[in-house]
TrEMBL record:
GO molecular function: damaged DNA binding; DNA-directed DNA polymerase activity
Keyword Transferase: yes
Official protein name in the record: Polymerase (DNA directed) iota
Compositional bias segments (type: Low complexity): 492-502
Annotated organism of origin: Nothobranchius korthausae
Assigned protein family: Belongs to the DNA polymerase type-Y family.
Keyword Transferase: yes
Keywords from the named record: DNA synthesis, Transferase
Tree of life domain: Eukaryota
Gene Ontology BP, a term: DNA repair
Chain positions covered by the region annotation Disordered: 451-506, 578-603, 619-639
One Pfam family recorded for the sequence: IMS_HHH_1
Residue intervals of the UmuC domain: 49-260
Cross-referenced PANTHER family: DNA POLYMERASE IOTA
């Protein structure tokens, strides 16, 4: 599979086979005519999914912080771009992602605020999700300002309590209908969904002071598509009978959520440009080009069919921060930038309360061939002493030590004595563990939402793909990537933080799919010169002693301590050589997939997305370098076991006590 295919596969991966739905779409009228509208069925006959998208999100946050900005045209600026603007400014011709100079030309009285520090946006974003979750736990975040919610159960409950079909009504708009001609009693579930949406929007406005739009439909794809029909601060229901209309109104295949740049390009090469083109294209022909499952998914998408579940988002699995620039070419600047990024990231990490186990540094070099999309990373474990400082009052000390670690990683990638030209630096904490679990290398992610917020603190079962990385701030892509190619030369802001892709509903667009991030895992167990031999003896065989030598002495000592070596069982300690996985499915590239992490050879992966890389290499599925699998243990089977079981097994193997049988050699992965 070539890179494009991988990316395309990924764009589509979450839009799973749901052709059955399209073959037999739910008929609201049949429900009504059979009289079941008011008789609650035990199993919901169809889902009710809400999609919320806040109005001019960053601008609203700024207006809450400074109410004087409410009545002026306001633009939120990152580098030279207006990433969003309030509706007063929109009324005067300013648009999202306009350059500052164009915006000023359109609206000379435009007031600008700098939006490069995402702290307030991030905090508000989580408050919104938390508030929604207090009504129903099935909430999935999409970027900073969007949430899906599956309210099917709530609707069913309400339906049971509703005796009279005549009392149904729609709140807000109904797509392609005037309120009068849409008969709510024919669509009782969607009608009730519209009431729930209105109530939730009112709660968000009342409690947090934010307005937003909502879409109400039978799946995520349709809810997302319909929610922006009337803006701002309005909501729209999509009836099943109008699915064809809304799909037909999309101006091109790229407008279909889930169809990314690569897919659209390939479709275009087949002469398929409009939604209609793809709808009528024979499935068999499509399957010849894309393979059966992808072809099917594509067909489903253009038919408005999507059975992907709303997957509760959970806490991010990593926290990161980054900045991009036109040119950075001195080590001094690199140190300063890393220091600056670390100061704020460590603060965020401290607020989060968990202790990171892994630190990663990512750089992007300027090259003429691949100007913007080539990232390289090195990562290393974080000694417990530093981890503890992060979560304590010794934050500043932690920053100093982390800067020093970061610079060692930097030197593994860049020869500081030669010329270099960087355009981005990203730092990331991952493998976040609850306190107490950190030392043992075990533990689960706790509720991110319970860290700062209100007394209502829903506990989440985190999904696997959460990443508080620089991506998807706007619900699709990160700022930097979402800026159009013409604008890219200005090197966007990307002080970061987004959650990465939400499991089950990943929107990929534009150039993010082209991003080629090279991540090499770096063996980082270290020894001071004086103790080099003894230390080297203690190092696992595939650890690079050279890297070890580069680290500060106290870190080396700690890393050599038995406690720490023991905890390393959750790391892959390999030297960084990069290769591209040849058989990469979109799923295996995803975070948390054992198939992607159980590479007991040199572990390194060329990923197509930052967010995948962010998360994909942190999971405790690797054979620890100081503990080999017994000969008859199938690594793939091992990878399917829960992390705590793996840990236990590994410690038992260390004592040479356990021999596992090899039950099968099937591949791990989705559905296995
Ligand atoms: N954002 C960003 N960079 C982008 C796009 C968006 O930083 N390239 C940020 C700013 C937005 C926020 O994400 O406020 C949400 O993005 P939306 O696309 O939802 O835009 P808004 O919420 O600002 O406006 P709208 O009212 O159109 O939803
Ligand atoms: Mg928005
Ligand atoms: Mg949005």
């Amino acid at each position: 599979m070539n890179n494009s295919d991988d990316e395309m596969e990924e764009e589509l991966s979450e839009w799973k086979n749901s052709f059955v739905d399209s073959a037999a779409p739910f008929s609201t009228s049949s429900v009504a005519s059979s009289g079941s509208a008011v008789k609650a069925s035990s199993a919901p006959s169809h889902r009710v999914i809400l999609h919320f998208d806040l109005d001019c999100f960053y601008a609203q946050v700024e207006m809450i912080r400074n109410p004087a900005l409410r009545c002026v045209p306001l633009g939120v600026q990152q580098k030279y771009i207006i990433v969003t603007c309030n509706y007063v400014a929109r009324g005067r011709g300013v648009t999202k992602l306009m350059s500052v100079s164009d915006a000023k030309e359109k609206c000379p009285e435009l007031v600008l605020v700098n939006g490069e520090d995402l702290t307030h946006y991030r905090e508000m974003s989580y408050k919104v999700t938390e508030l929604l979750m207090s009504y129903c736990p099935l909430v999935e975040r999409l970027g900073f300002d969007e949430n899906f919610m599956d309210v099917t159960e709530m609707v069913e409950q309400k339906l049971k309590q509703t005796a009279e079909p005549g009392c149904f009504s729609f709140k807000g708009h109904v797509y392609n209908h005037s309120s009068a001609d849409a008969k709510a009693s024919d669509h009782p579930r969607l009608a009730l969904g519209s009431h729930i949406a209105a109530e939730l929007r009112e709660a968000v406005r009342g409690k947090l002071g934010l307005t937003g739009c909502a879409g109400i439909a039978t799946n995520k794809l349709l809810a997302k598509l319909v929610s922006g029909t009337f803006k701002p601060n309005q909501q729209t229901v999509l009836l099943q009978e109008n699915v064809g209309d809304i799909m037909g109104c999309l101006s091109g295949l790229r407008k279909v959520p889930g169809v990314g740049h690569q897919t659209a390009k390939k479709l275009q090469s087949l002469g398929l440009v409009s939604v209609k083109d793809l709808q009528v294209y024979p499935l068999n022909d499509l399957a010849r080009q894309f393979g059966g499952p992808t072809a099917q998914r594509l067909k489903n998408l253009v038919l408005g069919v999507d059975d992907s579940p709303v997957t509760p988002s959970g806490a991010p699995q990593s926290l990161s921060d980054e900045d991009s620039f036109k040119k950075m070419s001195s080590t001094k600047e690199v140190v300063e930038k890393i220091q600056q990024l670390l100061s704020s990231l460590v603060e965020r990490m401290q607020k989060d309360g968990r202790q990171p186990q892994t630190f990663r540094l990512t750089i992007r070099r300027f090259t003429t061939a691949n100007k913007w999309f080539s990232r390289e990373s090195r990562q290393c474990p974080i000694p417990n002493s530093i981890g503890q400082k992060i979560s304590s009052e010794n934050r500043e000390e932690a920053v100093v030590q982390l800067v020093s670690m970061a610079m060692k990683l930097f030197q593994k990638m860049v020869d500081g004595s030669a010329d270099f030209h960087l355009t981005l630096i990203n730092i990331c904490f991952s493998n976040l563990q609850t306190r107490g679990a950190a030392v043992s290398g075990r533990g689960a992610i706790t509720s991110f939402f319970t860290q700062n917020a209100s007394p209502r603190k829903p506990q989440l079962v985190p999904s696997q793909n959460q990443d508080d990385s620089p991506r998807n701030a706007g619900g699709r892509l990160d700022t930097q990537i979402r800026i159009s190619p013409q604008q890219k030369h200005v090197a966007s802001k990307s002080s970061t933080s987004s959650e990465g892709a939400s499991h089950g509903f990943k929107w990929k667009q534009d150039s993010v799919v082209e991003e080629n991030q090279t991540t090499a895992c770096c063996s980082e167990v270290f020894c001071p010169d004086a103790t080099a031999n003894t230390a080297a003896d203690q190092l696992p065989p595939d650890v690079d002693p050279e890297v070890f030598k580069l680290l500060p002495e106290e870190i080396q000592k700690e890393l050599l301590s038995p406690l720490f070596l023991n905890s390393l069982s959750s790391y892959h300690l390999v030297s960084g050589v990069t290769h591209k996985p040849t058989n990469k499915s979109s799923d295996s590239e995803r975070i948390g997939d054992p198939a992607n992490t159980l590479d007991t050879s040199n572990r390194a992966t060329t990923m197509s997305h930052g967010e995948n890389v962010m998360e994909g290499d942190e999971l405790p599925f690797h054979q620890p370098s100081d503990c080999k699998f017994p000969g008859n243990v199938d690594p793939e089977v091992f990878s399917e076991l829960p992390p705590d079981v793996q840990q236990e097994l590994m410690s038992e193997w260390k004592q040479q006590k356990l021999i596992l049988k090899t039950p099968s050699s099937r591949k791990p992965g989705r559905g296995s």
